[in-house]
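Sample intake sheet
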Amino acid sequence: AGGVMQPMQMPSVKIMDTLKPVSVKKTPSGKYLFDFGKNISGFVEIAMSAKKGETLTIKLGEKIKDGELDTSEIDRYNLDGECQVNKYTFKGEGVESWHPAFTYYAFQYAELSGVDGLDNPDVIKAHHAYTSFGKIGDFECSDETLNKIYRMGCTSFVNNYHGIPTDCPHREKNGWSGDTQLSAEQALINFQVETSYQKWLRDFRDVQRPDGQLPGIIPTSMWGYNWGSGPAWDCALFVLPHLIYLYRGETSVYEDIYDCAANYIEYCKYWEKDGLVLFGLGDWCYPTEVEDKRIASNELTDSIYYYVNVSVMADMAKTLGKRKDCAKYTAKAKAIKKAIVDKYVNAAKGEVDNNCQTALAAILFHDLVSGASAKKIAKRLVKEIEKADGHFLAGILGCKYIFSALSEYGYTETAYKAITNPTYPSYRVWADKGATTMWEDWENGFSRNHHMYSDVITWMYKYVAGIKADIKNPGFKHFFVEPKLIPEIDWAKAEHESPYGAVAVSWKKENGIFNIEVTVPCGSSATLILPSGKQTELLCGTHKIMEKLN
């Protein structure tokens, strides 16, 4: 009785770093506010003395308003109206050390009150704790704004992994599948997260209803089946295995989820009308304080992810040697693609849906058109960004598509300028406000610890540093190196610990010369594409190459 014992598949949650306060201030209300300089997940530990029976109140949060800790956005989802609060009553026996057990919070600030001696920064420290997967990737360049955004995305991701991937580590701590599918590629570049993902993907099998339906939150307390799901969220079941195969060359995940995925495809047929589907959420968290309110049709984004899911299903079937299934799903994907293009794309004019940025970029990102038609749509995307004074106008789905789509069609500088635009909405605005993590929205940061926008890191890795995995040779058996040069960036470097060993690229522009160094691990190979377009095949070793810039 009691279940089946199995080996633990993923690393445990551990303390990964310990921070001391960078400042301590007395608030207008007479409490003491400790700033740890970084928004983290974890808990605090105290070491101090007080009289017997005195109680210390510790309140944790990520915002300051009028000099006081503001936890209103965290508290409002709690029945008792208070969240992330600890109380410790002293024994009165000298210095007492204490920290909570078996829980975690999210915070940059700790507010202490109730006892004397709280003006001493040594009475408290913060432990940054999360699932202890290793760091296997890094990125840096000459633009400090991009470096800040990179660190913000990485920190937001680890803050949201404690056994499962969550949306935020304080207010909800829910396993929203949409957030995870959107950040999964940068996560697999930066962290050894594949076994943790595989465990979570098995949770999909546990929550799937007999008809194939999935909730938007996994695991679930039975909430999320009829709101908060839909193809753009449910596609985590398909996108994560595909990315694990791409970056790690691992096929066992396909075997684990194949039947579950096939069952979900059958479920989608209940929603299908003329090859398209409409159920679930769309381009969530679109900027609210902009004049242009055009948001991509939910039917368009849902149907595109339906197409993605069926296409991945065909690829899984092919990889696993299921020929009949591969043919069936390939034909189905082709039919969905045709239905999307027929209804939403005007190829002759280069128009998509209502020509909002998300709609245009989604068609390009998922290769639903090609050739001259795709080029027209890319030009229209640039035009829409220019109309918005160089801003991207998109929610979480569009921010996955726009920057990569621009770079693929030769507009990397447009992407860069939108990301680093000094005015709202942009990632730079967050960074300039002192953010150390990514926010839930482009305005006030109702939550300031979300990772759903972090795929911008993938853009840095692929297009600024220039490293691209090769789906035809997964796990970095072969890869591409093609930096897209931006006038404002003088140098960049990135690395990734692949299954074959360290992949690394470092380049700089100096005196009209482009210098690049590429490390190819043993057993792997790479195709280097220089700024001139010249291609060079590289085998195992470190290669230094120079080219004169025009």
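Comment: The CA atoms of residues 74 and 329 lie 44 Å apart. The chain has a mean pLDDT of 97.
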